[in-house]
Amino acid sequence: MSRNDDSIWWRDITKNNLIDDFVDSGFSGCFSCCCKNGKNILFWHSLWLGDQSLRELYLDLFDMSTIKNCAVADVLIWNNGKHYWELEALFRGGDATVFSDGAATDFSIGAATFIAVAAVRGLSCWPRFCADVNSYIPIELEKDNFVWRINPGKEFSVSSVSNIINDSKSFVWPTHLFILLKVMWELKIPPKIKVFAWRFFIEKIPSKDELLKRGVTSILNKDCVFCGNHPEVISHLFFNCHVVKEIWKNMYGWLGIKEVLNGVNFLDFGVIQDKVKNANHRLKINIVWIAIIWCIWLMRNSIIFKGEAFCCDVVCSNIIFLSWRWLSFGYSKFSAIYYEWFKLPLSCSKAI
Ligand SMILES: [Zn+2]
């Protein structure tokens, strides 16, 4: 599938193991996988055994699995060219209490695994699950392929994304959202950022409120990491928090677009598309907009996971640098050096 005439975006997806990013982004059903060595295919989530994922087919087993995001290769053992499926590894280190009504709370990990595996084996679906997986013959020395399922030629294209949204009843996105997704999709930004922006627009960012809705109970502090005064919901985290507002204010001050859009409007990606008539300016503003939400998310994660302190200047510098990098890599006509971009973002490199 990964041929020279594929879109750059698609090539990046297949080369960079981004498939796991699709699990929650509405994309996983759009690919089928030709599993070879299984290194880039998610065991539970990807479509590699028929038309349904193993997660959908064997929900009970998926719930009991202790490694839900493993690759197919993680449960494959190779020995002199022969393969073995080590399916019990999917339940290793399981919480024995799940399987034994609380009776085994003090068991060691080994014992817990034993009980977990025994419980799994006791399920009526276990033999069918083993037979399904065992019927598949992987190829040790070949890389996995991915096939875009939507259009007949199996080529990935922007128009096929449009078709999914137009045709599929499972997508219930309103028209204006689809237009925003299309605008974002056509920006020449790194694939990982596109996936993030896609999730952002369809409200699948794993913010604390989203995780709580999904039943994650390990979140001790539900508040915004920036101000500590408000529950972390997406609208607050990215737009309404007074700390984050400073970032937006600095950035649109830097862009010099105060006269065109007021602060509230600038927050809305859709309004930019309507109000900024100059296509060159619009493109740059769109890219900066995506860089802003990305850098806010990175800062939020650094505070939570690395204990870093918030610094508005750091976030703003990152936004200016990243947007310049994306423009320089994605648009050959954009030839501004960093200093020019920093000084006069909208007037440098007039045509892109
Ligand atoms: Zn806040």
Structural class: mainly alpha
The helix content, as a percent range, equals 40-55%
Number of strand segments: 4
Low-confidence stretches: 1-26, 95-109, 168-172
Largest sheet properties: 2 strands, antiparallel
In percent, how much strand structure appears in the residues? under 5%
Given the structure, what is the number of helices?
A: 17
Note the overall shape. elongated
Helix and strand element order = HEHHEEHHHEHHHHHHHHHHH
Measure the end-to-end span.
30 Å
Mean pLDDT: 76
Over the alpha carbons, how many angstroms does the gyration radius reach? 24 Å
List the ions, cofactors and other small molecules found in this model.
zinc ion
* Spatial order of the strands forming the largest sheet: 1-4
How would you summarize what this structure contains?
It is built from 17 helices and 4 strands. The protein is mainly alpha-helical and 352 residues long.
Structure description:
With about 350 residues, this protein is mostly helical. About 50% of the residues lie in helices and about 5% in strands. The protein is built from 17 helices and 4 strands. A two-stranded antiparallel ribbon has the order 1-4. Strands 2-3 form a two-stranded antiparallel ribbon. Strand 2 and strand 3 form a beta hairpin. Helix 11 packs across helix 12. It is elongated. The relative contact order is 0.09. The N terminus is likely disordered. The protein binds zinc ion. Zinc ion binds next to loops.
